[in-house]
Amino acid sequence: MRIALSAAVVSFSLAVAACGQIEDEPQEAQDSIRAAVEAPREVIDSLLEESAPSLQSAELSAEDVLDKHLEAIGGKEAYLAVEKLATKNTTRNRGAVIEAVYYRKPPDLLVHSFKIDGVPNTFNTFNGKVLIQERDRAVDTVRDGKIIEQFAVAADIHLYTRLDEHGIKVKNMGVAELESFEAYKLHFVYPSGFHKYSYFDVETFLHVRDEFDKELQGDVYRHVVDFADFEEKNGVLYPRRITTRFAGRESVAVVTDVLVNDEVSESIF
């Protein structure tokens, strides 16, 4: 999770107005997103051909693992019945209290805000084509690049049933030994060439870990994100504790609210 630490006061009403304005963007703007971030075919192929000989061979395909994952969290019907999803979490980082809110609504709306010690800091709105970023008393509009791909994926609450629509390839690398259990290691490769590993417990099929490389201030760090303390909400399981580790640092986000198919007031932001 990237967090800007300088203070900025942002307006929910302004963000919604901006989101309404960008709904009029022409369809070709959306069609150009993938072309703007697409990596050369040989890059995608080389990532997908990666092997992990130290892992136990996988008896299930990646698609089988994802199907069993959907069953484990409540079933595909309950998963697809989620039409609005709002989550709020709190993290303590170097003495600061960071509140993050994510509101997602199909097909591709994402509203994302940060507060640091109660002060609004960053506000993002995304409608599938254009990203409006409000930070440091400035407003930026982004229409292409890798960040658009990342927001498009983050906005999709039905991602595991729509991987093909995002152009995401997935491969089961095998069974990996984690700290106290085994997990299927799935390799996801995005059109831009960004890739990550997601781990699913071989017994519960819950999604328990992500690993990916991310650049921060010119250096690339391996990020490890663990998901735990799953609780049911409207028939679907959600993690209530998210631990992120990179460069010797660790932060724990506690999910304080999960709102499913509820109307969300401006006050949540």
Explain the overall architecture.
With 269 residues, the chain is an alpha+beta fold. The protein has a single domain, classed as outer membrane lipoprotein receptor (LolB), chain A. Helix content is 22%, strand content 43%. The chain has helices spanning 12-22, 27-37, 41-48, 62-72, 76-80, 146-155, 163-166, and strands spanning 85-93, 96-105, 109-116, 119-126, 131-135, 138-142, 169-177, 182-189, 195-201, 207-216, 219-233, 236-246, 249-260. Strands 6-5-4-3-2-1-13-12-11-10-9-8-7 form a 13-stranded antiparallel β-sheet, with helices on both faces. The radius of gyration is 19 Å and the shape is globular. Residues 1-32 have low confidence and may be disordered.
Descriptive terms for the model:
269 residues, outer membrane lipoprotein receptor (LolB), chain A, 13-stranded antiparallel sheet, 22% helix, 43% strand
Task: Walk me through the topology.
Blueprint: H1 12-22, H2 27-37, H3 41-48, H4 62-72, H5 76-80, E1 85-93, E2 96-105, E3 109-116, E4 119-126, E5 131-135, E6 138-142, H6 146-155, H7 163-166, E7 169-177, E8 182-189, E9 195-201, E10 207-216, E11 219-233, E12 236-246, E13 249-260
Antiparallel strand pairs: 1-2, 1-13, 2-3, 3-4, 4-5, 5-6, 7-8, 8-9, 9-10, 10-11, 11-12, 12-13
Distance, first to last CA: 18 Å
Q: How would a textbook summarize the main sheet?
A: 13 strands, antiparallel
What would CATH call the architecture? Clam
Could you give the count of β-strands? 13
Helix count equals 7
Radius of gyration: 19 Å
Number of domains: 1
Unreliable stretches? 1-32
Query: Main sheet: which strands, in order across?
Result: 6-5-4-3-2-1-13-12-11-10-9-8-7
SSE string: HHHHHEEEEEEHHEEEEEEE
Q: What class would the helix/strand composition place it in?
A: alpha+beta
Please report which band the strand proportion falls in: under 5%, 5-15%, 15-25%, 25-35%, 35-45% or over 45%: 35-45%
Roughly what is the average pLDDT, rounded to an integer?
84
